[in-house]
Amino acid sequence: MTSDEIRERYLSFFEEHGHRRIASASLVPSAHDPSALLTVAGMHPLKPYFLGQESPPAPRLTDCQKVFRTVDIDNVGNTARHLTFFEMLGNFSFGDYFKHEAIEYAWELSREVFGFPAAAIWVTVFEGDDGLGLDADQEAIQRWLEVGVSRERIVQCPRSENFWQAGPTGPCGPCSELYFDRGVEHGSPEDLPGGENERFLEYWNLVFMQYDQEPAPDEPGSILKPLPARNIDTGLGLNRMAAILQDRQSVFETDQFQPLIELGEELSQCRYGAAFDSDRALRILADHARAMTFLTADGVVPSNEDRGYVLRRVMRRAIQQGLALELAPGFLTRYSQRVREVMGGVYPELHEQADATDMWLAAEEEGFGRTLAQGMDMLREHIEQARSAGRSSVAAVDVFTLHDTHGFPYEMTGELLAEEGLSIEGDFEELMEQQRARGRGGAGRVSAGLQTPDAAMGSLDGGAPTRFTGYETEVQQTVVLAVRPIEDPASEGERGMPARLLVKLEESPFYAAGGGQISDVGTIECAHGDCRARVEDVLFVGEDRVPEVILEAGTLEVGEQVLARVDHLVRHKTECNHTATHLLQAALRERVGSHVRQAGSYVGPDKLRFDFSHGQALSADELRDVEDRVNAWIARNDPVRAITTTLEEAKRLGAMALFGEKYGEVVRMVEVGEGEYSRELCGGTHVRSTAEIGAFRITHETSSAANVRRIEAVTGPVAVDLLREHDRLLKEITAELRTRPADAPAAVLALATERKRLEKALKAGGGGADGAGKLDIESLASSALELGGAIVLAAVVEVPDAKALLDAVDRIKGRLADAAILLGTAADGRVHFVASVAPALVERGVKAGAVVKAAAQVAGGGGGGRDTMAQAGGRDPQRLGEAIEAGRTAIEAALAN
Predict the structure, then answer these.
(1) Integer Cα distance of 409 and 17 in angstroms
(2) Using CA atoms, how far apart are residues 93 and 230, in angstroms rounded to an integer?
(3) How far apart are CA 896 and CA 408, in angstroms?
(4) DSSP collapsed to 3 states, 778-805
(5) How far apart are the C-alpha atoms of 882 and 888, rounded to whole Å?
(6) Predicted pLDDT at 360
(7) Contact 66, 87 (CB under 8 A)
(8) Which of these, 447, 448, 360, 434, lies nearest to 404 by C-alpha position?
(9) Contact, 531 vs 564, CB < 8 A?
(10) Are strands 598-603 and 608-613 parallel, antiparallel or unpaired?
């Protein structure tokens, strides 16, 4: 039975038993779920249903969920079954059926669909736990006996094995696991399910959520209370089931993995099964190729932060194994192509994002390939030094330098050291935290420094949620349903009422921040009376959109009839910027490439900011073309419409989804120009036609993070004001130059040319210190490159000594603003380095001391200095060029962090 057949038979079986089939959620969890960077379990996307925060689309669901975990990444390739990416089949009940039916379904599917002999199926059940005050799960034992499992094949296991809980509090319950008995020949007669053996393979876990765990009052521990609605959560690993049904010793020998193993054999000329080391490398490449292909298809891009770091770690482990097998460059994209051939029929996003996937994989393979050899050389030096000194470890500070300066993954360093019988001495994580503390800025929203409610705290009054009317109107007659003061002892309003309140309205026109758009502001006034409150923010409290207000007059009472009014000017400016953001994304995808995906945004009345996945700075031509395209669409006065439709239909129409957002079956889709160039799933507010935007002007394009660019822009009157300011500056320049505006560029160029001529004349006359004046500073400065959104110059120069080198750096600084500069020279049998880093780049993590240290280590020396200026020396002039390249790599790695 193929993996595709296993998947389909499982899902069809549960459809026939009243379950609704739902599609796999993204590997990127909802932006509202900060508990994990990636989807780590089959039930992970369904947590809001199990926790009662949202209503499921049906009381019975079944799916095949994409899952990614790194907890066992070190075991991948070493064992027969450990994977990072896999598919988890599941059937779920939300207050509908419970143990009786769940056990019956599992038995029927195992016996009648998958064809397992009854004697080959063993089960484990919860044996009870005194600490929880629970006896053995007799209900499950009895049901297993009823369906046909003999008592000797029902094994009771402790809480650690057969009791599920998400944490110290919350829903929990006993579980029952199904095992396939491969036979005594794979172990011994004494082996049992739940033990460490190869005879019994777990293939299905049934979780019976029947308790709510709460902290015990006035004492350690917890207490269990029955849940009002009992739930079922099950998980069956598709790849493990394939190994059983296809009678394979390893998941890597099943039909999903064999094409990838065969590709590895073809590229490496190694035969699978010939040697453990090559087998391990082929297995890691097969698993990691699946993981990186699916992660990039779901919008994750390699970086040094969060889920991007997880992806980068997987990519770099694969690259390391590919190089160990001596695969020709470009092998990652060969693997991704094979993954699409095997799994693209079930997961169409693999084909839809093929270009973006291959672009990121190729860029990472090329980029890491340049630094891997350098990092390996330095690691070997540390290993040799440790052995020479008789140590069994390498210092954490050296490992941190490899990671921070050269982008060498800590985990990879640990694995390579372990292969050499060495460990890491010291607290690497403490060094990382110190670095984070240095670079950490304020984040998140703070509401006037006051305590604000959490979005998960539930409704303000326990009643029905506020009805949002802000799409239809900006003025709403409504009724106050609840009022809650926000703690602010320093501010007291009339009659002792706190001046800052949360106010729940029956209907509300106020938009609550989401999707990058800021909250509305405005006023709430009593229809009959003198009360007035200024709306400063709008919060989600449960499902309610609750204005946060400052009371300016009178009091607000429950039951009061009020007039809620959105500030039209602020709303309209924000709408202009929001629609312009949609146009910007469409123009970027058209001009730069379809790999462009939103990675964050800010939409307010003052400007828009758009972060997007892209690996390099946009050229002047690209920026001009994007800006012109947006303005052309604005001039067309195209209609902007919001349409309510199904998620499936929106995807069919090509609507863009927000990275990390969770969508229901019914979605709101905003289309511009009849959808011919822009369709996005969006809950924000927008203009009615593009002409309302007025003008669009890009103000900045910078790096936001590794492989993420940021564009800031303004629209409407703000854009007009900016253009007027540019006109004013141009008039001042032309007045100073005594020329016409059209001739100003030529006049400025003439002045620059004359300045260069005078500088050359000065050099010819011997200007400069100790021979540095003989350098062609202009030519040297013009050779600087842009790396990671910054100007970088790393070069070998000919000067007589360190003093002249320092003078050369000072002169270049005058020509390169906000740059990182590293110069090196060889004189009198020694090597000298000087690094200069602009303060703006120091804030981004580039440190002059670290740069010269990286270069000097290659040349057999050392040195250091301030973050903005540092010097170093070395003993090996033959490695000067290699040392400068190491310094350049250190700068690039720091900019990518």
Answers:
(1) 48
(2) 8
(3) 12
(4) HHHHHCCEEECCEEEEEEECCCCCHHHH
(5) 10
(6) 92
(7) yes
(8) 434
(9) no
(10) antiparallel
pLDDT in tens, 100-155: 999 999 999 999 999 999 999 999 999 999 888 899 999 999 999 999 999 999 99
- Beta strand 121-126 with 532-541 is unpaired
Three-class SS state of 348: coil
Residue type, 266: E
Residues whose CB falls within 8 Å of the CB of residue 233, separated by 6 or more in sequence, listed in order? 42, 43, 46, 50, 90, 92, 164, 207, 209
424 — phi, psi (to 5°)? -105, 125
> What is the rounded distance in angstroms from the CA atom of residue 759 to the CA atom of residue 248?
76
The token duo for 137 is: 């799960």
Instruction: Evaluate whether 474 touches 565 at the Cβ level (below 8 Å).
Output: yes
* 581 exposure class (CB count in 10 Å sphere: 0-12, 13-18, 19+): buried
User: Within 394-508, where are the H helices?
Assistant: 396-406, 410-419, 428-439
Structure tokens at 767: 């200007």
Handedness of CA 283, 289, 294, 295 (dihedral sign): positive
Q: Which tokens hold the place of 765?
A: 């006359």
What pLDDT score does 307 carry? 87
Q: What is the pLDDT of residues 179-208, one digit of tens each?
A: 999 999 999 999 999 888 889 999 999 999
Q: Could you give the CA distance from residue 524 to residue 410 in angstroms, rounded to a whole number?
A: 55
Type of residue found at 646: T
The amino acid at 611: D
Nearest partner of 719 among 600, 632, 639, 631, judged by Cα = 631
Residues 6+ apart with CB under 8 A from 228: none
Looking at the chain, the whole-number percentage of residues with pLDDT higher than 70 is: 91
Which secondary structure element, helix H or strand E, spans residue 236, and what is its range?
strand 222-237
Query: What would the DSSP string read from start to end of 232-274?
Result: EEEEEEHHHHHHHHTT-SSGGGSTTTHHHHHHHHHHH-PPTTS
**Does the predicted TM-score (pTM) go above 0.85?**
no
Q: Quick one: angle between helices 620-635 and 568-591, nearest 10?
A: 130
Residue whose entry in the numeric block shows the structure tokens 């029927």: 108
Three-class SS state of 654: coil
Terminus-to-terminus CA distance in the chain, angstroms? 46
**Tokens at 178, concatenated:** 């199904």
How is residue 385 written in tokens?
Answer: 């030094």
CA–CA distance from 329 to each of 311, 321, 335, 853, 883 (Å)?
20, 13, 12, 30, 25
Q: Note the Cα 24 to chain centre separation in Å.
A: 18
Choice among 26-30, 520-524, 655-659, 724-728 with the minimum mean pLDDT: 655-659
Task: Give tens-digit pLDDT for 847-897.
Answer: 999 999 999 999 988 887 888 999 999 988 888 988 999 999 889 888 877
**CA-based nearest residue to 494, from 531, 527, 547:** 531
Contact assessment for residue 77 and residue 281, using Cβ atoms and an 8 Å cutoff: yes
Q: CA-based Rg of the chain, rounded to a whole angstrom?
A: 32
